[in-house]
Amino acid sequence: MKRTALPALLLLMLLSCRPDVEVLDTPDPAQQWNRTELDAFIWKTVRETGAFDWNAAPLDAAWGALQESDGVLSVGYKPAGYTSNLDREIHRIDLNASDWQTARRQVLQLILEEEKTGNADLKPEQIELFGEGLLPVVNVRVTRRATLEKLRAAPQVRYAEPMGYEPSGATAASRVASSSGCGEYGANPDLVPGVDFTTIAPDAKVSWNHPYHRIGQAWTRAAGSGIKVMIIDTGVDPHQANLGGNFNQGEFSQGRTLEKRVTLPRSTFFGIPTGPVETPDDPCGHGTAMAGVLAAPRAANGNAVGVAYDCDLVTVRAAADVLLDESREVRGVSDAFVLAGNRSDIRVVSMSLGRITLSSQIADAVRFAFNRGKLIFCAAGTSFGWSAGWFGVIFPATMTEVSAVTGVKEDFRRCNNCHDGSQTDFVVVMEKVSNGLHPITTATSGDQPGTVGGSSVATAQTAGMAALVWSRFPDLSRDEVLQRLVRSGSFFPNRNGSFGWGAVNADAATGEAQ
Q1: Is residue 394 scored above 70 in pLDDT?
Q2: In terms of DSSP bridges, do strands 72-77 and 157-162 run parallel, antiparallel, or are they unpaired?
Q3: What is the DSSP string of 289-320?
Q4: Burial track 177-186 (b if 16+ CB lie within 10 A, e otherwise)
Q5: Average pLDDT for 206-225
Q6: pLDDT band at residue 429, thresholds of 50, 70 and 90?
Q7: Averaged over 300-327, what is the pLDDT?
Q8: For residues 400 and 15, is the Cβ–Cβ distance under 8 A?
Q9: Average pLDDT taken over every residue of the chain
Q10: Distance of CA 205 to the CA centre of its chain
Q11: β-strand 424-431 against 403-409: which pairing, if any?
Q12: Which H or E run contains 287?
């Protein structure tokens, strides 16, 4: 469960460097920053600059966020005097090398010595959470403001950020308990044949929005065969057989592989692991819906068919829901991207999760995967009332290393709750003007499809179209596949200020000539 009532449905996430964040008006530094002050400061910064970076915020803001969350700090480290561009080299560094090991020990020793001034019996193993990872980062529990201050000044420290703090709504009235993208993914019995879906052999339902992207025409050339896609989300419901034992069925979706992984650590209480070990199963429903729209089989049971119905699939349960506001979710997502980067067989990564504040640890992991050739799609964001009029692109879709995707209506207006902006790269038509209906997908169980909306479904479907292109041209590089998507966009050769290159034409993207 979430540690507090948090704002709304974020269905989330290329092309913008992390902007510098201006430090704006702050409360009296002599007072402890509370949640109301923190949230007001974050929202003001986001509205005025488009992003929020904890490292550009006052020390007391970061300390207040630690106090108002679980006290877990993400500390990126490097050898003192390291001068290389770590963003470009992070996939090559050897963390077992003596200089990196020394830097890690120095950071942990600094933390231990300062924390022991308040707890003389503190042991080293009580400081670090989640265990050692594959990035130059440690996740530590910090109880003293002086520890954070010393870390910020240490030459071995790249960043020191609270992991588990995200703002609530911009006004007191909007700070209400809400869904975080979970639930409501059951079957929809009201879908109308020929209007909300068409049927394709052997008896699979094709979503009403596919023709806007000429996906059916692309299927005459490719269906994703030989391409492995990773979905980083909330897992897959074990009751949905089409994403389980029936993943390979019929003549059109045969011989492919399905892996279900979990990187989400067990739940914590004030930084202390307390919950059971997590499984790849999806208690939320969101990950199941994403896997369905991207890779559900072309089956004879009347269920929805995925865009890349013959691709291989790896699902990773990296988060509890779509809003990454827990320390363990930051670790789960960063570990998932590292997993993708370390697998040469994974080519496309799709993530419909995100957050308002920047996480340098997730950014490290995204760059790790990107530098190893992965084509990454992230949702630009979807919200319901919590943002008080702010609909900018959220993190990590703001990163240059990923393609940001959002959803539009049939008339190319932004979908009711979708985010957009200059960082957006692609859009998907995913909301009917007449009744607001969203694309169909596999429900959490059974063979009657459900529906799913927001920038989430737009992201998963665009990743599926990328798999079609790479399946058609398996020898292309990541950048060459991306360029085929760009050149097929409805706005190409121009770029729209809110919707990027526009809607991908899968038929053109998989065609011989462009």
Answers
A1: yes
A2: antiparallel
A3: HHHHHHH----SSSPBPPTTTTSEEEEEE--S
A4: ebebbbeebe
A5: 98
A6: very high
A7: 97
A8: yes
A9: 90
A10: 27
A11: parallel
A12: helix 286-295
**Distance set, CA 86 to CA 82, 83, 92, 135, 473 (Å):** 9, 8, 9, 11, 32
Helix axes 98-115, 145-153, angle to 10 degrees: 150
SS3 55: helix
Looking up tokens 């827990």 gives 326
Angle between helix 454-472 and helix 286-295 axes, rounded to 10 deg? 30
Residue 291 has pLDDT above 90, yes or no: yes
Which residue matches tokens 């209906």?
Answer: 437
Rounded Cα distance, 209 and 357, in Å: 32
Name residue 304's beta-bridge partners: 205
The pTM for the full model equals 0.92
Radius of gyration of the chain (CA): 22
Distance of CA 340 to the CA centre of its chain: 13
Higher pLDDT, 386 or 257: 257
Instruction: Quote the strand ranges of 330-417, DSSP E.
Output: 346-351, 375-379, 403-409
pLDDT, average across residues 147-158 = 98
Q: Stretch 286-307: mean pLDDT, rounded?
A: 98
Cα–Cα distance, 185 to 291 (Å, whole number): 12
Give the separation between CA 447 and CA 452, rounded to whole angstroms.
Answer: 16
The pLDDT of residue 168 is 79
Confidence of residue 273 (pLDDT cuts 50, 70, 90): confident
Token readout for 30 is 């002599």
User: Counting Cβ atoms within 10 Å, is residue 192 exposed (0-12), middle (13-18) or buried (19+)?
Assistant: exposed
pLDDT in tens, 84-143: 999 999 999 999 999 999 999 999 999 999 999 999 999 998 999 998 889 999 999 999
Which residues lie closer than 8 Å to 373 by C-beta, 6 or more apart? 347, 477, 478
* Residue 412 Rama label (left phi>0; alpha psi -120 to 50; beta): left
Measured CA distances, 101 to 77, 107, 132, 342 (Å):
10, 10, 12, 21
The encoded tokens of residue 355 equal: 């957050």
What are φ and ψ of residue 340, in 5° steps? -60, -45
Closest Cα partner for 484 from 498, 497, 465? Answer: 465
The sign one gets for the Cα dihedral 91, 364, 147, 123 is negative
Residue spans of alpha helices (H) in 98-246: 98-115, 145-153, 215-218
Instruction: Give 75: exposed, middle or buried? Use CB within 10 Å, 0-12, 13-18, 19+.
Output: buried
Q: How far apart are CA 387 and CA 39, in angstroms?
A: 11
pLDDT digits (tens, 9 = 90+) for 339-374: 999 999 999 999 999 999 999 999 999 999 999 999
Q: Directed axis angle between helix 59-68 and helix 145-153, to 10°? A: 130
In one-letter notation, the amino acid at residue 177 is A
CB 278 within 8 A of CB 260: no
pLDDT > 80? residue 28: no
Q: Which tokens in the block code for residue 183?
A: 């639930």
Beta 137-141 vs 228-233: how paired, if at all?
A: unpaired
